[in-house]
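Readers of this paper often ask what the protein records in our data store actually look like. This encoding replaces a full spatial description with a residue-level series of whole-number codes. For reference, a complete record is included directly beneath this paragraph.
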Amino acid sequence: MIDEIRRRLHRVPFVPLTVRTSDGREYCVSSPDHTHISPRDNRGVVCDDERTTAIPGPIHIKSVIEEQNGE
């Protein structure tokens, strides 16, 4: 799933997405600047506009949802 997120972060034009984890939480990624994936692909960091940060482990990322019409 990390590879899928990385691919979508480099997409041109970027389309906002939501990362859903195994506990049902959803993290909106409104721009590539709001996400970082570690070089070893063992961690992802998602930050939102309110400066909240989440670090879901790759085994907990269950889906990546593309936002319709960028909304």
Summary: Helices lie at 2-9. The mean pLDDT is 87. The two ends are 22 Å apart (CA to CA). The first strand starts at residue 17 and ends at 21.
